[in-house]
Write a structure and sequence with these properties.
mainly beta; three-stranded antiparallel beta sheet; five-stranded mixed β-barrel; 8 strands; Hypothetical upf0131 protein ytfp
C-alpha cells in the first residue's frame, strides 16, 4: 500500500500529533485547492471543511504512507468517520525547479460541517500563533504531552 497523506494541522512536524507519522516519508510542503476553509476548533486543533466556499488554497505537508496500520491508527486518533472523515483530494507540491506539480491523489482528514468552530484561518496555513495561548502545548515534550501521546497510542478496550 502506498498513499499520499496531506496534513495541515496537529500532525505537522513540530505539532502535538507529529509522532504518529514516525516511519512515514516526508515528501514536501504543498497545498490542496478547492472550496475549502480552515478553522480553529475550541478543542485546540484546526479543522478543514469544504462546501459552498470560494476556491482557496490550504497549505500543509505531504507524506508518503506505506503502512495500512499507520492509516488505521491515524483514522482512530482523528475520529474517522465520526469527527473527521478521510477523503481523497488532488494534491499539489513545489518541485525542485519551483514549479507547481500535481502529485496525485492523497488522503485528507476533513471535519463535518456541523461542528462548532471558533475562528476562520484566512491564510490557509495553520501556525502555532493560531492557537489561543491557553491551549498551547510545549514543543519540548513535557511529561503531560508524553502522557497524552501514550493515551493516544493505547488502543481502547473492546468490552
Amino acid at each position: 500500500m502506498k498513499k499520499f497523506l496531506f496534513i495541515y494541522g496537529s500532525l505537522k512536524r513540530g505539532f502535538s500529533l507529529s509522532f504518529l507519522l514516525k516511519g512515514a516519508q516526508f515528501i514536501s510542503e504543498g497545498y490542496i485547492q478547492g472550496p475549502y476553509k480552515l478553522f480553529f476548533h475550541e478543542g485546540g486543533y484546526p479543522c478543514l471543511i469544504s462546501g459552498k466556499f470560494q476556491n482557496a488554497k490550504i497549505y500543509g505537508e505531504i507524506y508518503l504512507i506505506t503502512s495500512q496500520t499507520m492509516i488505521q491508527e491515524i483514522d482512530r486518533v482523528e475520529g474517522h468517520p465520526l469527527e473527521y472523515k478521510r477523503e481523497g483530494v488532488a494534491l499539489y507540491s513545489k518541485n525542485l525547479s519551483d514549479q507547481i506539480a500535481l502529485i496525485g491523489d492523497a488522503y485528507i482528514y476533513q471535519s463535518h460541517e456541523d461542528l462548532d468552530f471558533n475562528h476562520f484561518i484566512p491564510s490557509g496555513t495553520f501556525l502555532e500563533s493560531d492557537i489561543p495561548q491557553n491551549l498551547r502545548y510545549s514543543k519540548k515534550g513535557s511529561a503531560e504531552c508524553e502522557r497524552s501521546q501514550n493515551k493516544l497510542l493505547t488502543k481502547p478496550d473492546n468490552d
